[in-house]
Known about the structure:
Low-confidence stretches: 135-156
Largest sheet: 4 strands, antiparallel
Mean pLDDT: 76
Structural class: alpha+beta
Strand content: 25-35%
Shape: flat
Distance between the termini: 84 Å
Number of helices: 4
Amino acid sequence: MKKTFLVAAVLLASIALLTVGCTTTDLTTNKTGWSDYAEIAVKDFDPVGVVRVTSKEVFRVEPFGFKKSSTGSKVTYDMLIAEAVKLGAHDIINVRIDVANKSSSSPFDFFTGSTKEIEYIGTALAIKYKNPPEQAGRHFGARLGDSEILRSADVSSAIQSLFGGKK
């Protein structure tokens, strides 16, 4: 009885494994991955130069945490693009933002207060298109900036464009 049960279990397991492993393949297409379906826009450009922006944030905590304050800001895309415009560029690529923590801490910071200083360093390659894109700024989520540069839009302008409101 045990032997027939064991044979039946092995037979059922092998049938299950064989049917699970069977797949169908559509051989009418030669596309193998998601990248074969992507359309890549060719944008010929000339490098204009490297832009660099630094910014600093300072966080202060008074003794015993009674008062907390912060000053400064982080590096943003608009800061980098503003520097690129000064060079006569249309856009930026290869953006890198480094963070340097220039503060130290001790076990007594709660009693004595502390200051945390963080420096942000943003670098990017400024480029100028040989044939600037005609559709710049015409899709949802973007607007054409003052210098004819594609910039990210704020939420209110996106909502206004959806519902037809006036600025």
